[in-house]
Design goal:
The protein has 373 residues and is an alpha/beta fold. 35% of the residues lie in helices and 16% in strands. The protein is built from 13 helices and 13 strands.
Length: 373
């Protein structure tokens, strides 16, 4: 690939929604932070214990909400405060601001001549395509009806703000074609697709023997649909190892049988070890993109994924994995049984992951920046 043009010398600021957990978005942002080591990092909430080694505290520019972080870094507690916090930063000393948004950060205020390159992981799912699911979950329990009505009012106001704030970026980058379609639908704006990067070197191709288990690497939140993987493996009596943590963990543990194991947060070496040894990676949610399946494929591990969202752009059906077409445990079970009768080539999985390499991402991002100036 031809190297992109050199970025002119300029003052750059980086902005990320939340730095409170280690997920795919944070891993990709670390790549960008490494590209621009002099750039300060702005974020709404920061957890030094979890991410201080990736993003040192001295590099962080805190929002007004950080003073509440000692109480909780659960961002759902601060939803109503996010728009004001996002609009409170002053970027007048910078030539370029690059933001990475999953809900609100695209709404930062950047005045000319400063330019704003806005990377959209997704328009806020709980405000748009998943809003009714979120409200339905909130409606359960003794105070359910009150919580539901409260969320309806809050989400309505936030959608109004989100729509108006969507005009603020000078150029929008979408994490996938699926995200690009939602940007056009909800924001009525054009965008360019720039796939997130995978650190291929951190996930080498496995040459060892595969073991008799499946693996999930994910934050444990409802929309990831981890319960489908658990239900399917419970019924099939397949070993499943789940790496990751989150607010949904206790509920998932309660439904798990003796073949299901939870490791919680794990180091990169432990994640890599399991990806290299697993017979398959399960990806049951409808995701915006999904870096973890590509990390699995980089290790030569095929993927069983739900046929929707970003997985359609990364997994090659029948070559680097299999899709299940209905979001049900029974559909996943049938696909697992079909998967176990097939012979997937680790080298083919690796080759597919290399199409989303860090080098390619960095070159494409530099090119996008050069085109803005």
């Amino acid at each position: 690939m031809q190297h992109s043009a050199t970025i002119p010398i300029m003052r750059i600021a980086l902005v990320h929604e939340l730095l409170t957990m280690r997920g795919g978005a944070e891993r990709m942002f670390k790549t960008v932070a490494d590209m621009f080591p002099e750039a300060p990092i702005y974020t709404l909430l920061y957890d030094q214990k979890r991410l201080g080694d990736w993003f040192p505290r001295e590099r962080i520019c805190f929002s007004k909400l950080q003073k509440y972080a000692f109480l909780s870094t659960n961002h759902h507690l601060y939803l109503k405060k996010f728009p004001h916090a996002v609009e409170s930063w002053d970027f007048s000393e910078f030539d370029l601001v690059i933001s990475f948004s999953s809900a609100f950060i695209h709404g930062i205020i950047v005045n000319p001549p400063t330019k704003h390159l806005s990377y959209i992981h997704t328009p806020a799912r709980y405000l748009w395509d998943r809003t009714f699911d979120v409200q339905e979950r909130a409606s359960k329990g003794i105070l359910g009806s009150l919580k539901q009505r409260h969320l309806e009012r809050v989400f309505h106001r936030l959608r109004q703000w989100d729509t108006s704030a969507s005009d603020r970026g000078d150029h929008l980058l979408a994490a996938s074609k699926a995200v690009q379609r939602r940007i056009e639908l909800y924001y009525r704006r054009e965008s360019s697709v720039l796939y997130p990067s995978v650190d291929i070197n951190a996930f080498p191709l496995s040459t060892g023997r595969r073991e008799d288990f499946y693996v999930v690497v994910s934050t444990l939140v409802p929309y990831k649909r981890i319960e489908l993987a658990i239900d399917a493996c419970n019924q099939l009596k397949r070993r499943l190892i789940i790496i990751g943590d989150g607010p949904h963990r206790r509920e998932l543990e309660c439904m798990s049988g003796e073949t299901i194991s939870f490791l919680g947060y794990a180091t990169e070496s432990i994640v890599m070890d399991h990806l290299q040894k697993a017979m398959g990676f399960l990806f049951p949610g409808d995701e915006d993109f999904g870096i973890a399946p590509l990390e699995a494929m980089a290790c030569g591990t095929p993927v069983i994924a739900y046929s929707g969202g970003g997985a359609l752009e990364t997994v090659v059906d029948g070559e680097t994995g299999l899709f299940f077409r209905e979001s049900t445990a029974s559909a996943l079970m049938k696909t697992i049984e079909a998967f176990e009768k097939m012979d997937f080539q680790p080298a083919r999985c690796r080759a597919q992951a290399e199409k989303f390499s860090r080098v390619r991402f960095e070159e494409n991002l530099r090119q996008k920046i050069v085109e803005m100036f």
